[in-house]
């Protein structure tokens, strides 16, 4: 049970199987992803991510309530996640943030200029705004830099309303709290799937001396959730789809939702006639499909993620010369 470190550790254990003296590692192994960063390859959701997301949404709602009693204020909210922008992206979508900055999308001057332009237009009629960013979205465009930039631009407005800026780094508060019901249910489902997987392999790979031995790559897996179903992917197949330098998958499934979050929030103020009519749904769906079709392709080699079925037969080693792990 663990996050990206657990995935790396499981991969190293699997690789050490081929070397002499490590026969004790020739047993079935699984990883149950549990990290608020939600950066484990082979799953769309990790245990703990929903609890952190609920805290982020509650914090954004509180900030908006605070801003309603002030005059023209922008809140820059920094979330955890290291290089993975899941918390920032989904927090912006669920919390109604005006803009979101993530490592996957990158931060540049053009994006910052668009954000400033949107804030100037919004403050002609509204009193508050929220900008989300994950902690490592940029090495130079830090949270303090964004605050200083927006603060200066808020003072320079000559033909529009001025606005002030505040920073809110949620920090380690995202890691605490009571688990949400969804996290509890997911943990129970994944634990049951892990036990069933281990039991199936142990029954198939038990030798005559009641020891378990298997070198099948499909016996070392990540058990997670994909869409609404449980998934089970071999660690060996996931290795070349992983960006180890930045500790996350090379291709993020939530990438198209960043543009969707901006679209929904921007048009809620500039085009109120588009929000509560069926045409808004059609526009949002078309934008999502366009973002999905233009999503950056994965640089890793093509491969189909196999759903693991019955474990492959084991090649039994000689009990007299091999040290094995007992059941």
The H/E string reads: HEHEHEHEHEHEEEHEEHHE
Measured on Cα atoms, how large is the radius of gyration?
24 Å
User: What is the number of helices?
Assistant: 9
- How many individual β-strands? 11
**What's the end-to-end separation, in Å?**
20 Å
Give the fraction of residues assigned to helices.
25-40%
What do the pLDDT scores average to? 82
Q: Estimate what percentage of residues fall within beta strands.
A: 5-15%
Assign an overall shape: elongated
Structural class: alpha/beta
Largest sheet: 4 strands, parallel
Give the spatial strand order of the biggest sheet.
3-4-2-5
User: Unreliable stretches, pLDDT < 50, 5 or more residues?
Assistant: 269-277, 294-327
Short description:
This protein is an alpha/beta fold.
Task: Please give a structural write-up.
It contains nine helices and eleven strands. The chain has helices at 4-15, 49-68, 86-95, 109-122, 143-156, 181-204, 235-238, 256-270, 278-293, and strands at residues 29-31, 73-79, 99-101, 128-134, 164-169, 211-212, 220-226, 229-234, 242-243, 248-249, 325-326. A hairpin with a 4-residue loop joins strand 9 and strand 10. Helix 8 runs antiparallel to helix 9 (278-293). 36% of the residues are buried.
């Amino acid at each position: 049970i663990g996050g990206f470190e657990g995935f790396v550790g499981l991969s190293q254990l699997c690789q050490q199987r081929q070397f002499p003296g490590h026969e004790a590692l020739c047993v079935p192994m699984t990883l149950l992803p549990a990290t608020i960063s939600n950066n484990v390859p082979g799953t769309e959701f990790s245990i703990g991510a929903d609890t952190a997301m609920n805290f982020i949404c509650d914090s954004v709602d509180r900030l908006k309530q605070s801003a309603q009693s002030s005059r023209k204020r922008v809140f820059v909210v920094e979330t955890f996640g290291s290089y993975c922008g899941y918390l920032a992206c989904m927090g912006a979508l669920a919390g109604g943030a005006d803009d979101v900055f993530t490592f996957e999308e990158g931060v540049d001057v053009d994006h910052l200029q668009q954000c400033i332009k949107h804030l100037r237009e919004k403050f002609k009629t509204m009193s508050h705004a929220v900008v989300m960013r994950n902690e490592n979205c940029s090495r130079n465009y830090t949270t303090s830099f964004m605050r200083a930039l927006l603060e200066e631009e808020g003072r320079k407005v000559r033909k529009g309303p001025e606005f002030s800026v505040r920073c809110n780094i949620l920090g380690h508060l995202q890691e605490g709290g009571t688990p949400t019901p969804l996290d509890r249910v997911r943990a129970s489902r994944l634990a049951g799937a892990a036990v069933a997987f281990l039991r199936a392999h142990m029954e198939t790979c038990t030798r005559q001396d009641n020891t378990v031995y298997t070198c099948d790559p499909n016996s070392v897996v990540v058990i997670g959730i994909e869409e609404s179903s449980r998934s089970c992917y071999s660690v060996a197949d996931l290795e070349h789809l992983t960006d180890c330098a930045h500790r996350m998958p090379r291709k993020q499934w939530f990438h198209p939702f960043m543009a969707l979050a901006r679209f929904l929030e921007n048009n809620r103020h500039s085009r109120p006639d588009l929000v509560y009519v069926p045409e808004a749904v059609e526009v949002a769906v078309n934008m999502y499909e366009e973002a999905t079709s233009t999503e950056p392709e994965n640089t890793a080699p093509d491969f189909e993620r196999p759903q693991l079925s019955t474990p492959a037969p084991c090649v039994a080693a000689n009990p007299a010369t091999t040290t094995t792990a007992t059941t």
